[in-house]
């Protein structure tokens, strides 16, 4: 580490850690280490701004400011009190504590959070005779407390609101996918940004919007206006503008044909609104059609779908849905690599094709498979016969 660099932690969705590490490496991060649902790394303030603006698979970028040992709430209080809190925020600013505890010494995140809050508030009151206010929903400064056994870490949240809130999604239909997960899925497909890209069950259009932003190199936070670090005393607005300009200079016209389709009229209306918010109405073709009637662009395209999962469907509807997906793939998507995300492992089997690749990712609390089916361009029957003959 040099004088200007410091450690940081980027948080993500389980299963996307290697992608996040790679994105950070490309931005120039040093000493990258993958851990569960996070990546630790080092860099300077410019890198912290870049990570917030340009990394598609990060939920938050945190900056550790203190680490100490505590086995009791009083020791936690004392440890927090050693920091000079007025150096991190002003009395007029609001703050919130986000605590996560595990191990034998602390059992309740809520109580640990309250004790940290007390330590901060008491310090301000003792020094200045007044205290800053807590604001849960939109605080100026977010403080993370992470306790594992007796190891306490205090971190500042440089992102503020989670980075999946890109700023383009003002409306959602049923079960929208998290934007960070959507971006991660697209990166996992290895799509080149040139060949056709189709989401035939687009819902609120999260996946096609993330695909277009990736292909056009539009930074994921392009439409976001607020970040936590803007409320820090060391906020460097010139550096921030430079970081944004450098990233925005990379934006290019789209080469690929991107299709967003859904059978539901309501979903299409919502998708239109979000696509419009992202200024992508010229770049994403929106079609109201069931997948079985869709005629996708010819060529070696990529299809990504996020069908409804079992929890919300009757058994027989589920069987019909996933069998239907298999039939549509075989008939309509010749030459495509078709990717399906589902938490229902049995349902995925009903697609009736053998996955050529599988990843495990989490959609919220649901463990999901993200499976690839290679749809051959010749007759499917001929391909099967050929394969069997090859085995003899
Ligand atoms: C889980 S939602 C997709 C959510 C979407 N990824 C988002 O971020 O909003 C599933 C979508 O599949 C659509 N759907 C279900 N069966 C379909 C079919 N046979 N053809 C086209 N769309 C279908 C539903 O209308 C719904 O919008």
Which helices and strands appear, and what pairs or packs with what?
Elements: E1 6-11, H1 17-27, E2 30-35, E3 38-43, H2 45-54, E4 60-69, H3 73-81, E5 95-102, H4 109-128, E6 141-148, E7 151-157, H5 179-189, E8 197-199, H6 206-215, H7 237-248, E9 258-262, H8 265-277, E10 284-288, E11 302-305, H9 315-332, E12 337-342, H10 345-349, E13 357-363, E14 366-374, H11 380-391
Parallel strand pairs: 5-6, 8-9, 8-11, 9-10, 11-12
Antiparallel strand pairs: 1-3, 1-4, 2-3, 4-7, 6-7, 12-14, 13-14
Helix pairs in contact: 2-7, 3-4, 5-6
The chain binds S-adenosylmethionine.
Question: What does this protein look like?
Answer:
This protein is an alpha/beta fold and 392 residues long. It has two domains: 6-157, VC0802-like, CATH 3.30.2130; 179-384, Rossmann fold. The chain is 33% helix and 23% strand. It has eleven helices and 14 strands. It has helices at 17-27, 45-54, 73-81, 109-128, 179-189, 206-215, 237-248, 265-277, 315-332, 345-349, 380-391, and strands at 6-11, 30-35, 38-43, 60-69, 95-102, 141-148, 151-157, 197-199, 258-262, 284-288, 302-305, 337-342, 357-363, 366-374. The strands form two sheets. A seven-stranded mixed beta sheet has the order 2-3-1-4-7-6-5. α2 (45-54) packs across α7, α3 (73-81) crosses α4 and α5 packs across α6. The protein is elongated and about 75 Å long. The mean pLDDT is 94. S-adenosylmethionine binds at residues 173-177, 200-201, 203-204, 206-207, 262-264, 267, 290-291, 306-308, 324.
């Amino acid at each position: 580490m040099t004088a200007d660099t410091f450690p940081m932690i980027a948080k993500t969705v389980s299963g996307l850690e290697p992608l996040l590490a790679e994105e950070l490496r490309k931005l120039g991060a040093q000493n990258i280490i993958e851990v569960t649902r996070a990546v630790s790394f080092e860099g300077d303030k410019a890198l912290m701004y870049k990570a917030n603006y340009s990394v598609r698979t990060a939920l938050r970028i945190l900056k550790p400011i203190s680490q100490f040992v505590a086995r009791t709430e009083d020791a936690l209080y004392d440890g927090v009190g050693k920091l000079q809190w007025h150096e991190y925020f002003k009395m007029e600013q609001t703050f919130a504590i986000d605590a996560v505890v595990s191990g034998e010494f602390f059992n309740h995140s809520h109580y640990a959070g309250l004790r940290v809050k007390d330590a901060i508030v008491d310090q301000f009151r003792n020094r200045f005779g007044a205290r800053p206010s807590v604001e849960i929903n939109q605080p100026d400064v977010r403080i993370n407390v992470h306790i594992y056994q007796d190891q306490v870490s205090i971190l500042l949240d440089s992102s503020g609101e989670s980075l999946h809130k890109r700023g383009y999604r003002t409306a959602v239909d049923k079960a929208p996918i998290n934007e960070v997960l959507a971006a991660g899925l697209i990166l996992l497909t290895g799509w080149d940004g040139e060949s056709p890209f189709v989401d035939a069950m687009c819902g609120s259009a999260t996946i096609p919007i993330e695909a277009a932003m990736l292909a056009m190199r539009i930074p994921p936070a392009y439409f976001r206006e607020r970040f936590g670090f803007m409320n820090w005393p060391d906020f460097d607005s010139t550096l921030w503008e430079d970081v944004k300009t450098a990233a925005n200079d990379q934006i290019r016209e789209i080469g690929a044909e991107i299709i967003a389709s859904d059978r539901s009229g309501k979903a299409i209306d919502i998708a239109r609104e979000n696509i419009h918010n992202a200024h992508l109405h010229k770049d994403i073709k929106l079609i109201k059609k069931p997948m079985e009637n869709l005629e996708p662009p010819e060529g070696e395209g990529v299809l990504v779908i996020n069908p409804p999962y079992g929890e919300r469907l009757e058994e027989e509807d589920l069987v019909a849905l996933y069998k239907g997906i298999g039939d549509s793939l075989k008939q309509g998507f010749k030459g495509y690599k078709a990717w399906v995300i589902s938490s229902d492992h049995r349902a995925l089997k009903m697609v009736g094709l053998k996955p050529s690749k599988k990843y495990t990712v989490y959609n919220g609390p649901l463990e999901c498979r993200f499976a690839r089916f290679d749809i051959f361009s010749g007759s499917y029957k001929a391909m099967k016969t050929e394969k069997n003959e090859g085995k003899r």
